[in-house]
Design a protein that fits this description.
about 250 residues, alpha+beta, 2 domains, 4-stranded antiparallel beta sheet
């Protein structure tokens, strides 16, 4: 489970809890209003008092039924079940790797293109010509790229076809790969300086946490659980939770 998935689970629990609390408050206010109305009518109009009292009893019965229904709901707790395969995998390793000695040969020869193939990443929702400002590959060979001109994030399958598109609040400058299915992008324009995290799940782009920065954010890279962000004039190191570690 990633931090983004944990945030989504907690948010869903909070939403359900708030819904139940709001419903209880609504029932309480309605019962209180009818009770106050009955007291105000008093004995001046027995017929109206009777009707209001019957309505109050009906609402009271509904409230008791709703509270009983809530009381019957099972409690929910969150716990992490560790992946035991990790420990098993590590115990089977004989080392962290091998050292390879390679003779370096200085070469001033420029890189040459062996072959070139073009694929269209345009989607029906696009207004302008696509301008790819950042791209990264996931472990399952899917591709996530930022379209600067159309202020969007796009997911491509192994055939380089757009299978998911998410509009952004402003233009995205860069993107980096964080873990198997999680990426981070930089949004920068006028008063907007943000790093947004997205998770790829079953062919969909799911928005996660947003970190608002106090400076320009252009380029972004990830290494060993830390984000390196450029502002155009400086390099900053952040944690994945958006905490500034230091300015380099």
């Amino acid at each position: 489970m990633t931090l983004t998935e944990l945030d989504v689970s907690i948010a869903n629990l909070k939403t359900d809890f708030k819904k139940d609390v709001d419903n209880c408050n609504k029932l309480y206010e309605e019962l209180k209003s009818f009770r106050d109305a009955i007291h105000e009518i008093g004995e001046n109009n027995n017929e109206l008092v009777f009707v209001a009292n019957q309505k109050w009893l009906e609402m009271k019965k509904q409230s008791e039924s709703y509270i009983q229904e809530l009381s019957g709901k099972p409690g929910i707790s969150l716990s992490l079940q560790a992946n035991t395969n990790i420990e098993k995998y590590l115990s089977e390793l004989h080392g962290l790797g091998i050292i390879i000695h390679t003779d370096l040969v200085t070469s001033y020869r420029a890189l040459s293109v062996i072959c070139k193939t073009e694929f269209s990443v345009h989607s029906n929702e696009d207004t302008y010509l696509c301008s790819i400002s950042g791209v990264c590959f996931l472990l399952d060979s899917q591709i996530v790229l930022t379209d600067y001109s159309n202020a969007s994030l796009k997911l491509l399958n192994q055939k380089y076809e757009v299978i998911s598109r998410t509009p952004l609040v402003t233009h995205a400058h860069d993107i980096c790969h964080i873990c198997s299915s999680e990426v981070a992008i930089t949004l920068n324009k006028q008063a907007t300086h943000e790093v947004q995290l997205f998770t790829v799940d079953k062919g969909r782009l799911i928005k996660g946490r947003t970190h608002r920065l106090e400076h320009q954010c252009i380029g972004i890279s990830h290494r060993l659980g830390e984000l390196y962000i450029t502002s155009g004039s400086a390099l900053y190191k952040y944690s994945l939770r958006g905490e500034l570690i230091k300015k380099l």
